[in-house]
Amino acid sequence: MAFDNQQCGKASPGSPLIKLKGVVKTYWTFGTPVTALKGIDLDVAQGEYLVVTGKSGAGKTTLVNLIAGLDRCTAGTLWVASAPLHQLKPEAASKWRGRQVGVVFQNFELLPSLSILQNVMLPMDFSHTFPPSQARERALSLLAEVEIADHAQKLPSTISGGQQQRVAIARALANDPPLILADEPTGSLDSVTSEAVLKMFERLVERGKTVLIVSHDPDIAARAQRVITLHDGQITNDRRKG
User: What do you get for the CA distance between the two ends of the chain, in Å?
Assistant: First the structure.
């Protein structure tokens, strides 16, 4: 399918940033089909702060992987930032993701052989969003924003887990995407560092970003504008504050 990534970004006026209709995801394990998501319908507006919760095996990570364009649904339609992810081939999805989605993982996923600065510059290099000199300046600015610029030339292994997660957030923001996805982003952090990371996400929402977090933690869910509960591949609860 021909697709112009330059036309993506914010949803059209009045349209949700994320729209799933009848989304099914089935995996094959030793020749046996296992359906992780069973007909998901979901709309998420630009600027929402959403937490997806549920027990292990409920389909949370599968849902995030589909919204990030890391995987493709088996059936249904999935639109994110004006892109038809249910139709995009892997190469097109990868290019789209580089510009439109920032992903924050529980285990940071920083490249160990690159400096912190180089890790943050990597999405910009991949997507050619900024020339090298501007990419470096932007990366340093993002590291300053997450209060870790003093460590820019260090390798990830030389800083703490909390500091690595700050770097991962800076990297997720590199291309100024409209959508930030985080899968258990505080799962390996202490309570003080977790609080600092969550406040960063809240500031992003204040700036108009859409933030979707997967978490088992009820305290994190309590801070969100909206909480969705998955059970056995289906949405069993969708509640908003107020």
Answer: 42
Average pLDDT, the chain: 91
Contact 44, 210 (CB under 8 A): yes
Tokens of 229: 């509960």
Q: What is the pLDDT of residues 188-211, one digit of tens each?
A: 888 888 898 899 899 999 999 999
Q: CB neighbours (10 Å) of residue 61?
A: 17
Q: Is residue 221 helix, strand or coil?
A: helix
pLDDT of residue 7: 46
**Of the given ranges (41-50, 77-86, 165-174, 185-194), which has the lowest mean pLDDT?**
185-194
Return the closest-CA partner of residue 81 out of 99, 65, 104.
99
Structure-block tokens of residue 152: 């820019």
To the nearest 10°, report the CA torsion of 124, 113, 160, 164.
Answer: 20
134-159: per-residue pLDDT in tens?
999 999 999 999 899 999 999 999 99
Residue at 1: amino acid letter? M
Could you say which DSSP state residue 11 is in? Answer: P
> What distance in Å separates the CA atoms of residue 92 and residue 75, rounded to the nearest whole number?
19
Torsion angle, alpha carbons of 115, 171, 228, 230, to 10: -50
Q: Closest Cα to residue 42, out of 25, 17, 11, 62?
A: 17
